[in-house]
Target: NAD(P)-binding protein
Amino acid sequence: MPVYVVTGANRGLGLEFVRQLSQSTDNTVLACVRSSSSDLADLKQAYKPNESNTHVLHCNTGDLSSIQSFAKEVQKTLGGDRKIEFLINNAAVNSKPEQTSLSIGPDDLTNEIRINVLGPAKTTEFLLAEGVLAKTARIVNLSSGLGSMAVSLGIMPRKCATYSISKGALNSLTVQQSGELREEGKLGPKCVVISIDPGWVKTRMGGEGAILEPKESIGGMLKAIHGLGEGDNGKFYTYTVSRSAVELKSSVFFSLLDLADADPDKAMSDDLPHPLTEPVKDGMPARPTPALDRDGHPTTALAHTAFLEPIERACRT
Ligand SMILES: NC(=O)c1ccc[n+]([C@@H]2O[C@H](COP(=O)([O-])OP(=O)(O)OC[C@H]3O[C@@H](n4cnc5c(N)ncnc54)[C@H](OP(=O)(O)O)[C@@H]3O)[C@@H](O)[C@H]2O)c1
Model:
């Protein structure tokens, strides 16, 4: 009976995580919501097939005392013996997509860092302190293409500065956690921490113009998450679209990519739209292609890929 924790579970991708995880009565799901008073009708409907193994817990990931109480509640709910195998730090905001690097609202950036970075950091820290994370835990930080330096470099005009900065910081957090949680006395060498970009998905954040249905994105992510091995620790996975299927492939953090020569036409010419080259819709940015060939390997157009790791295992929906 694996135990999953999903933050931001009342709508969007968090809700779809719960819906798909509830298809198996083997799963125990701790579905976390910002406010227990908000409308939870969709969530209740989503976990109906596995009602007896689902627990709705209150966790405002922008509030340290709320996360602290939540971690204690998890300990009580699991009763000491059972541990969390999958922690999905999904809750986030993109509240000021119109802001650019020259118009950042200090309070807005602080708010996004608080929810999008400190939230996953403290959720992980406090759950660790309560002793409820399994030694083999998979900790999944929901990032964004906008958290990638390489992708952001190719977006003109630049978009969603505050959100992008917060997701870049989240990726850095993943790298930090992936090292520290492996230390003796913490989780040890078998835990895995990753960042993952769900693709451009039709949710309130993604908007109606997005290209993926939540079902596709979550189906692919769950496959990838379930297939994670110890060697995946610290990596950043992103959705790509291949010839006939949506795949998840790994990318890297903070690589010095010079996309100036990248020719999107030389990249995968697919019958499906490519999320990295879609035009701006509903405030979400176009995502530049990192110029991959049909097998997902970087082409020579990426001239300065000093730190680019090989593209890894794909996961088809
Ligand atoms: N959709 C996309 O295209 C896309 C693309 C790249 C990355 N992402 C990432 O994927 C994740 C899910 O996004 P989404 O599209 O599902 O967004 P969404 O539709 O806006 O849903 C966001 C969820 O996060 C919750 N949340 C926000 N602030 C919270 C807080 N302080 N405490 C607890 N919960 C909070 C919301 O709860 P309330 O209802 O209470 O506000 C909601 O459940 C996010 O990390 C996002 O950055 C999404």
